[in-house]
Each structure stands twice: as structure tokens, then as C-alpha cells.
Amino acid sequence: MIDIKKFAALQKLSKRSFAEQQQIVKKVLAGQEVLCRTCQQPLYLLSPEQGACSNKVTGIRCKQGCTDIQLDFV
Known about the structure:
45% of the residues lie in helices and 12% in strands. The protein is built from two helices and three strands. The radius of gyration is 15 Å and the shape is elongated.
């Protein structure tokens, strides 16, 4: 049986996390400096062209890999 209160809390946390990631993506794509919450290093965008050269998944990340937001480019 599913505990409705726990499920609602998880759903609320997921929505908040998604909204925070959206804001990070918007700021990085706008050229603003955003720091990783864990290591305080700047986040950067790894484009499809850069990812193909280095065999890495495209997205936004920090150098240490604490933050890793994978993005699909179409």
C-alpha cells in the first residue's frame, strides 16, 4: 500500500528539484556564471560538438562532476 503523504512529499521534492534545474539551465545558457553547490566551481555547457570530440554526454556540469545535468539537443 502506498503512503499518500510520503508520495505527496516525494512529488513536491521532485517538482522543486526540476524547477531548480530549469533555472540553472536558463542561467548557464544565458551566459551567467552559476557555481556548483558542492564544489563551488563554475558550471559549463558541453555542446554536442564538444561531446562528440571527447566521448562525453552533452549537458551542464562542473569539472569535478558533482553537478551533471544531461541535455538532449535536437
